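Pipeline run #58 for the internal structure catalog. This entry was flagged by the ingest filter as a single-chain record with no existing model, so it goes straight to prediction. Upstream metadata was stripped on purpose; only the residue string is passed forward. Reviewer on rotation: M.T. Logging verbosity set to normal.
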Amino acid sequence: MDERSLAVTRRSLHGVAELVLAGPQYRGGGGIRLRVVPGGFATLADPGVRVDGDRLITSAGKLPLTGTYAEVAEAAGLEASRLDDVYSGGPGVLPGEGLEVDPEAARLLADAFARGDAALRQLAPRETPVLWPEHFDVAVTLDEVNYGVSPGDDAIPEPYAYVGPWTPQTGDFWNTSFGAARLLAEVPDVLVFFQKGRGLVTDPE
């Protein structure tokens, strides 16, 4: 996968998550939480609005993720809305900016979210994984430890799984400032990685 295509697609889909899904949902009183669905991610309402690869699926039909965020939202009967008043550190995109979504990169990111969502549901059956529009990751929190999968960011450009204890840990497993991270391409079983981190937090070696 071309690194630029992945980065540009990730930023564009992050922008869609905030401006087209979470923003309008929040303004309508539905909160900012999103969920992972086959092919991508969606608002909480069912069927609601969802991203499937390089398409936006709405009551108006399948819309291509092309043009500006404002144009895509308008075509879906929505008003693009940023969430700067709710959090900091979001995608930083403007409604008038254009999208660039590579179908192959979109599928790779959707697969990362799907793997993360499945592993989180096995790790914590009583919890509902949330796709947060701020950092664009799917995660749960258990006993003051964050578990999740990110599609990548400025520090780690590829999709990765992470374990982030609120209390700093020591040892070889913990390889980042926030805890532990592993590239999904190098993790055959995300659940095993989560369980390893959970065990080390509760019973340090």
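catalog note: The helical segments are 3-27, 69-75, 103-123, 190-202.
catalog note: The CA atoms of residues 28 and 186 lie 40 Å apart.
status: ready for reviewer M.T.
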